User: Fold these one by one.
Assistant:
Number 1:
Amino acid sequence: MATPLDSEKYMSLETFRKDGTGVKTPVWMANLDDNLVVFTAGGSFKVKRLRRNPKCRVAACDMRGNVHGLFYEGTCVIVEDEAQIDRMHAALRKKYGLLMAVGDFFAGISGRTAKRKYLEVTLTG
């Protein structure tokens, strides 16, 4: 089954601070098992916010984060299972092709690949 954002190149992922303020970040995403999958730096604040509160909102956006679609409510979890991470990475590689391969290459030589976290967004509304 498709999600409403499958054809988009970027997605705005909004996570929430302790005080309830939303923070939007543009990210790449791919569909996997009717959910949206994302990767990010493991030490990013969005990961820290998601550890405390899995609630999120997502919408289509451009590379600068300018939203051009409806927001959808959801939950976002940090995936730790290596087999699932491999599937998520493959879905992102399939969607972004050479761009993802180049990013992976530079992340690999700089040591950032091992620090990545993979996120799974389940739309709830």
Note: The domain at 10-123 is CATH 2.30.110.10 (Pnp Oxidase; Chain A).
Number 2:
Amino acid sequence: MATKQSSAEKRHRQSEERRIRNKSAKSAIKTSVKKFTTSIQDKDAGAAETNLRETIKKLDTAAGKGIFHKNTVARKKSRMQKLFNTLKTAQ
């Protein structure tokens, strides 16, 4: 016969799974942003554009899943786009 579990135990288990999933997504985004920043510092517009698109896609996905607030994502995207535009105008 199965033992009855409390809702608190289930909630704890669910939150732990979400925490691990969110941590993985945030780490991937940080890595992507770092690649973008490095390509900006190297003044490589082609790589910067590729990395920008990849990062924006990951950020939008994270916002859709509720990992980041939509305004946080909008702010990050805006700042990265601004950096990319300054690089393009400098060339």
Note: Helices lie at 7-41, 45-65, 70-90.
Number 3:
Amino acid sequence: MDQEALTTIMQEGRIAGAFLDVLDTEPFDLDCPLLTMDNVVVTPHMASNTEECMMRMATQAASQICKVLAGERPDWPVNRPAGK
């Protein structure tokens, strides 16, 4: 995200709103104009850090490891298979 560009288009009213969990500077600068806008919501970068989410991520990671070790293709590969 280009935070400066987002600030400009938000100030110009070119988009209705923004929901962010990352800013250019972490921890964010308290003088950031985005933080003063009524149509901008900023959450911590750990908004999904719930007990349920952590359990689901661990279970899904383990199931994908099992698939790969069994010679199967993972459900969400990051890289294309070689030769494709």
Note: Strands lie at 18-20, 40-42.
Number 4:
Amino acid sequence: MINKTYVGILLSIFLLIPLSLHAEIKIGYVVVEKVLKDAPQTASSNKKLEKEFKSRTDDLQKKGKAIQAQEKDYKKNSLTMSDSDKQKAQKKIQNSKIEIQRIERELREDIDIRRREEIGKLQQQINKSIEELAEKEKYDLILYQGVAYASKGIDITDDLIKALGKAK
């Protein structure tokens, strides 16, 4: 009799334990590309980069216009130029084009480096906001990147963008 009671109690415990373990889990999913595109920090970061590189970009455009003027002048005057003057003018235009390509490449590289720095800062803010949102809304799991499928019901991307707007 004791064995039957003992077995009954153990059986009840084993049946109740899985029920408590299957408590509802709250899961959220974040579309990182959308956050990076729509977060208010992205717009301010782009303005900051634009302002930071404006003088170099303007200088590059001026040099490009100067080369176009040189080419136009060359085409206009090439019929009356001597062969040596033509070669000198062509070489000068070619060297100017090579120089402007170098400057443009360096500018692009510098902008890319700064953009990656700004994205790194934004990713830190995103991670912090995800943690804060998870604690506030009592999420057990929030996923991003590498998810094969996520339903709209667990997509919290817009909530995260709002949180980032408040964190600004």
Note: The mean pLDDT is 84.
